[in-house]
What does this fold into?
Amino acid sequence: MCVYFFILVQYISHIVFLDPKPQTIQTADRNKFSPLNSPYAPYPIPVWSAALQAVDQSPSNLVEASKTMQNYGHYVFPDPGLFIHPATAAKYIESWLRVRDAWMMRVATEPSLAMSNQMWRTFLSIDNSVPEKGETKSARRRQEALDIILPNTHKYPGVKRRSGLMGPIIWQGREYPSGVLPPENVVREILWELYELNFIHELQSLDRRACQNLDLLDATQLFDRQSEISQCFHTSSFRHVSIPSENLGLADNDFDKRFQFVTPLVFIMNSWKGEKPAMLAGDLSMVQLSPDGTKEMEKVVANYYCQQFFNYFGRAAQVPHRLFPTNLS
It folds into this structure.
C-alpha cells in the first residue's frame, strides 16, 4: 500500500558512518567549539564543554592534513547550531520535523548520507512544495540537496511524494501549527536529539578510523565492536534515541551513575591507534582509581575524544548534552 508523505515516513535506527576524510580547520560564523548561546539550546555538560574548547586546532594535528575541503564539515544529522537564528528557526525546525522520519529511514538503509552544513541549510530553507529544476546556481543547489534527501523510487516503490500545504508539524505525537516556532522546551528536545544522534554516529565513525586491527570487511567483528560501543549509552538511547524524563548516561546528574558509561568508553579508546594519556593506556582492568581519580578520568576521556575527533575529521565533535538543567558538574 502506498504511503503518502512530504518525503516518506518510517523509522528504522541504524549506524551510518561519516565521510572518513579529515579536513582543514573549520571556518564559520559560529565557533563550533563553544556551547550554543541560545535559550533553546540543550544544557552543556561542563566536562565535555571544556574539552571541546580545549581542542588544539593546529593543522599539524590532522591525521591526513593533505586532504581537500571537498567533504569538509559533514554531518549525518543537521548541526543544532543551524536552528538557533531567530529569522530562520521556525522554518528550519518545521523542515526538519517534516523530513526527520524520512531521513532516519534513508540513514537506516543506505550508505553514509552525511551532508555539509551548507547543504543542510539549503535543504532546510526550501519551501514544502518541491521546486522545479532551474538553471540558476541557487536552483541547482536546491535540487542537489533534494536529490540527496528524496528517496530513490527504485528503492522505495511504495512511497510517493506530495507537495502543497502539509498541515501541522508533529513532534513526539503532538501537533504544532505550521509556520510557528514550537515552545522553547520542545525546540530544546529537538536539538538535544540531534546532538545525541550525531554523537552516536560520530563515535562509531571515529572508532572505525582509530581502532587498531579492526577489519572493516568482517561483519562479525564490526557487530561485536558495535555492541561494545553501545555500552557507552543508556539502554534507551543507542538503537533508538528516545526523549528521557531525566538526564541519563553520560549526561546523568549523579557522577557514580554517569561514570558507569564513562568506563566502557575508556575501554573503547584503549584500543585506538597512537599515543594516548597514561590513564587510557595499558591494562585498564588493573587500574584502581580514587574518587578524585574517577573524576579526572572523565575529564581525560572527554579531552581525548574531542581532540581525536578533530585530528581525524578536522572539525568540532558533537558532544553529549543535558536535556534538563542542573547545578552539578
Summary: The chain has two domains: 3-37+67-176, 184-322. The helical segments are 46-53, 89-109, 117-124, 137-149, 184-210, 219-230, 255-270, 291-313. The beta strands are 3-5, 43-44, 74-75, 115-116, 159-161, 169-171, 174-176, 321-322.
